[in-house]
Amino acid sequence: MTGPATPAGDRETPATSTTAGQGGTFRYVIGYNGDKRSKDALRLGIALAKAFNAELEIVCILRSDEPYLPVYPPVGDVTPMLRRQANNWLHEALDTVPDDVVARGHVRTSLSVAAGLLAAVAEFEATLVVVGAASGKYTAKFSVGPVTDALLHRAGVPVALAPRGYKGVTAIKRLYAGIGMRPGAHRIMREAREAAYRSGLELDLVSFLPLDHVQGEATEAIAQVERNLQSSAKEIGEHVPVSVQVVRGKTLKKAVAEMDWQPDAVLLVGSSRLAGERQIFLGTTTSRILRHLPIPMIVLPLGTSEKETES
Amino acid sequence: MSVETEAEGGTDKGLSSGSVGLLGAVVIGMSCIAPAYTLSGALGPTAAAVDTHLPAIFLVGFIPMLLVAVGYRQLNRAMPDSGTTFTWTSKAFGPWVGWMGGWGLLAATILVLSNLAGIAVEFFYLMIAQVTGRPEVADLASNVPVNILTCLVFMAGACWISYRGVETTEKVQWVLVAFQIIILLWFSVAAFVHVANGTAEGGMHIQAEWFNPLGVGSLSAFAAGVSLSVFIYWGWDVVLTINEETKGAATTPGRAALATIFSIVVLYMVVGLAVLSFAGLGDTGVGLNNPEIQENVFAALAGPVMGPAALLLSLAVLSSSAASLQSTFVSPARTLLAMGYYGALPRRFGRITPRFQSPGFATVAAAVVSSLFYTFMRIVSEDVLWDTITALGMMVCFYYGVTALACVWYFRRSWFKSVKSFLNNLFAPLLGGLLLLMFFVQTSVDSMDPAYGSGSQIGGVGLVFILGIGILLLGVVVMVTQYFRNRSFFQERFETTELPVLD
Q: CA B211 to CA B403: how far, in whole Å?
């Protein structure tokens, strides 16, 4: 499953690397609490783990009571029952993990699920946290619930989001990297190259071009974006097979919907420039893409180095 | 592949959840007692039972609660992780008594839910009437279909909030509690000023005799008064169970409990005296013996006492009962969860909704049962609030009494280990438990009289009796049914001799 090993010393990027990185084992934290979207997240975690040879830390966060919760009349603590239930959920989860993927289950307590997951990321020194998108029945594939929303604004590591009802694939085979049309896409390109290089996955650079935002001739705009992508592809280098694609449509929604997404792929996107150091911050375009995307997505935090190069 | 849980017993609870200081603990205790709501519902029936000895009963009624609370604290320290009446009594007396203890708690919470919702409905319309200046709106509360419908909406709202596992935060609690206390004190001062100026309708002056519990006419009246005051103090013992989160855990819980007790007794005393001396015991107008206003005295007194500011009192009672309504859902839901979990009720009660980590089925079940109960009572009873409060007092006496005795039995081997152990494990809970059970029996016997309480009856038997005893008998039926459906719980051998080291 693993791609070519990273030759030692052949690295330009510092060790902040994420979906792929240096020699040791990667650990992915999976937010799991027994519901459907946890199962979506787990399927995505397994597919990613196979592609990047990572280990899974499946974490069930139990919310602890606010001490100011008045229970009237007082009854005792039901946490042991919750804990037992959480253990059952984790056992169910571990049963679905294929034998060739290393996975462990953990129960943690926290005041909020998001804070608990972030603490777990720190505890396991994880390089990625995987969650399922909220399950708004009639809404888009991804609707961002409070937990995901908090992660997308506070996580210091990439956040992988499984779309609602994600069926899972044996392993992720292809990476799409969403390249914005504004400058500042260095981080995402570096990450994409790194990831593709390590895993041997095919890399596709994509730009979204909503034609309703184009002034003047469409063909010219398309050509311009394509040139952009080509130069980015060149920057990424010869070691990695790269192809480029301009995804267009009348609106951003149509563009995303009409693109022929490969089911065994993930889309890498960067954070908004509003993000703080090593922080994730979902930009507006990204969150609109997210709403219509049928495949999983990984949101990268803004790296320190990128800030520096930008300023 | 393995599942590993965090540190044994998950004792990190206090670290992440932030700590609660002395004042915070008092706020939690106060919020559980919900003084504005409690007084609003209980003042009338208590005054009806014991006349001017209201202050005396408020003082005396507190003692059995205090004694039982000692037992609660002991059990909570010995079995912190399964601290429900249901599990404690099961461990002490075996499954059958344990089951009934759990049922008593459930019944009490179902009763209090209907009462809370009922009070909330009354004050909801009263407040709209006060805001719009149209007094006829307040009468909507006595329109049965409108009342029931509004109540069901409130119930559904509270159920939804509790199903989603939303929890009240510190700030909200502070505001709610401070608001209640300020308004209640304001009300009392205004009432005393009226009395001093001679503008009070009843206009009685405080007499020493009001504080003499022996002056209460009969044992029946005394028992009724104590059952009711058990209801008004119900909830403060929560202070004893928050010790893990309290700053300086060794000393604070004790001090917090004392501080809560002290503040609540003082508050009740002030409000009780104010109401008594302002309104008097007449049976017309605002007199406390006027059956028209007894079930909800604040609604009747707020206007005459506070003038235009009466709106604030309505708001205080409404917010207090609405907050309690929501937090009260947690209690039956968790008890049902525990009972379902141990197989004492069908397993689906033990189901936990993954998304919200709340006992979903149990929460909805509690809401449905309380709603049905309220609807039934609203149609049958002449005075729903009064009858539910009285029956509630009985039920609390029952399950508190049983729990206190469970403590005595559970710690039977350490009765004579030390003086402290004797007091904590034998004397206090035994005396408290026996007193409460005695009041329970006395109230049950008295309530057979159709004239008892508000005077509602079915077939010549008092409605309060039918409620109280009927619910317990229903419990026996459900228990036996469950026995035949799934015996595992009833055949389980609980460790009745488990003896943790306690001082």
A: 30
